[in-house]
Amino acid sequence: MHLSLRTIPAALAALALLGCLSACGGGGSTPPINNNNNGGGNNGGGGGNNGGGLTIPPVESFQDLSPAGDDNTTSWLKDVYHTLPDVTDADGPYQNSSLQAYADSVFAIVNTERAANGKPALARDAHLDNLAQAHARDMALRDYFSHDTEGYGLQYFQRLDAIDPAPYNFMGENIAGNQQTPEAVMNTWMNSAGHRSNILHDDYDYVGIGCYYDAGSGPYNIYWVQVFARFNGDPDAHSWIEP
User: CB 70: neighbour CB atoms within 10 A?
Assistant: First the structure.
């Protein structure tokens, strides 16, 4: 996959080159961007085998709901973000309770790994969950795999900006495809330098988890996303754009 960078400090630019593939799967990582000097990068891939242990959700299809005159951000909000499942129900933005449990497990393993490496725990933020799930679902429904939102011209930090976030200093993203369990995807990420750096990075204090099962005929049957951020204060004190 191609590497895309904006102007960032040299120490951060190097991190964009570190993500690599593991024999058991694939993914992509971005370095943390400093919101006063944004930047990011891509690298990744995918692979794996079908697995079980989930309640398989119904097949979904992408629907283009935005008029031709809408700009990229408005189109993405209408077509991707606002079409998430009802985030106020018991399963949040996830397709069903078993996929919600998968996302919960990824979050738990993240903090287990951080504790093992002497790092403070990350808090989970529902707004970042929604953002991560929107991207996982969009990749699945439109059969692509990238930090950039295909067809909308949005990079990963622009998706966060699109939902009017609380003021933030840093953010980053990990993606992966086709790992069949939370343990498998976390193993893939922790064995890749770029992904591991995001998971253990000191510049984050919140994380959101995306986990989408594609029951259709796409290249991967599970898409995973982690969105990391550091906010200036309590993110829930801010009025975000909601799905």
Answer: 14
- Residues 6 or more apart whose Cβ sits within 8 Å of residue 129: 92, 93, 103, 208, 209, 210
- Residue 22, CB half-sphere, CA atoms under 13 Å: how many? 24
Angle made by CA atoms 103, 166, 15, in degrees to the nearest 5? 65
Could you read off the pLDDT of 147-174 as tens digits, one per residue? Answer: 999 999 999 999 999 999 999 999 999 9
pLDDT grade, residue 218 (50/70/90)? confident
- Phi (first) and psi of residue 212, to 5 degrees: -125, 130
Percent of the chain scoring above 70 in pLDDT: 79
Kindly state the average pLDDT of the residues 77-101.
Answer: 96
Amino acid at 229: A
Of 35, 51, 11, 25, the residue nearest 186 (C-alpha): 25
User: How many whole angstroms separate alpha carbon 140 and alpha carbon 75?
Assistant: 18
C-alpha to C-alpha distance for 9 and 38, rounded to whole angstroms: 9
